[in-house]
Write a structure and sequence with these properties.
alpha/beta, Rossmann fold, 2 domains, five-stranded parallel sheet, three-stranded antiparallel sheet, about 15% strand, globular, Chemotaxis_MeTrfase_CheR, S-adenosyl-L-methionine, protein-glutamate O-methyltransferase activity, EC 2.1.1.80
Length: about 260
């Protein structure tokens, strides 16, 4: 049976869900098509979803490669520097001021869809830069999650090339990274690494979290349909402590019921 693009895409969505449990219908079709097309090109299949469907039936390992491509999150250290300036100079002082009033020393941050770790490690660097030795007075933790096991393995290793560090000043590189592999690679130092705990987690179907002071989820929800965006924004709202902060991408907009419960800064 020969299927048109729409029928073929829907069949692939169904097959992926049956095999992996990942509901691709939540993603925008154009985004899915681009990601599937990249995989088809990588393995030498033209433009036929029929042919790719047959390939998946015979090569089950391809599901993992496809899902890695679908869930990819392009990132870098200090991506969107203005966001981290606001985090450093506005969010942290306001939040810690409230914690002093409540006599609380616990600071819990969630980096959702953390990819290979640049975002949570950037958060850790900012905490050190802003608080210095005062960070030791807090029980601070950064919970970093992603659906991609391969990305999480790279994040846990904490080793990056020079290009990934291009937005970090040389003094900061020396302060927070060790040089490895003959000056070609840099490893995040333990004083930052020890703040972060990594966990595999699916934003769409994974367990619900709670009791976070700050949640970062940037440049991820733009790939999802509007209904799923509404659901995830509510999940994030429910996961925040009273007075907590949700930090999203510069091009992303709050939608749905959660918009009424969160105030833009």
């Amino acid at each position: 049976m020969v299927l048109n693009d729409e029928m073929g895409l829907n069949l692939l969505k169904k097959k992926i869900y049956e095999r992996t449990g990942v509901d691709c219908s939540k993603y925008k079709d154009n985004y899915l098509k681009r990601r599937i097309d990249l995989r088809m090109k990588a393995i030498g299949i033209g433009t036929s979803y029929n042919e790719y469907y047959r390939f998946l039936e015979k090569n089950h390992d391809e599901y993992k490669s496809l899902l890695d491509g679908i869930t990819i999150n392009v990132t870098e250290f200090f991506r969107d520097a203005d966001t981290f300036d606001a985090f450093k100079n506005m969010v942290i002082p306001q939040l810690l001021s409230e914690k002093v009033k409540r006599n609380s020393r616990i600071l819990r941050i969630w980096s959702a869809a953390c990819s290979i770790g640049e975002e949570p490690y950037t958060i850790g660097i900012v905490l050190h830069e802003k608080l210095g030795p005062g960070l030791n007075n807090l029980i601070a933790s950064i919970h970093a999650t992603d659906i991609d096991e391969k990305a999480l393995s790279a994040a846990k290793a904490g080793i990056y090339d020079a290009e990934a560090l291009k937005k970090i000043s040389k003094p900061q590189v020396s302060k927070y990274f060790d040089v490895v592999d003959g000056n070609d690679k840099y490893r995040i130092k333990d004083k930052v690494k020890n703040l972060v705990r990594f966990q595999q987690h699916d934003l769409i179907s994974g367990k619900k979290f709670s009791h976070f002071d700050i949640i970062f989820c940037r440049n991820v929800l733009i790939y999802f349909g509007r209904e799923l965006q509404h659901t995830l924004f509510l999940d994030f709202y429910d996961a925040l402590n009273d007075g907590g902060y949700l930090i999203i991408g510069k091009t992303e907009t709050m939608t749905g019921e959660a918009k009424d419960n969160l105030r833009a800064l």
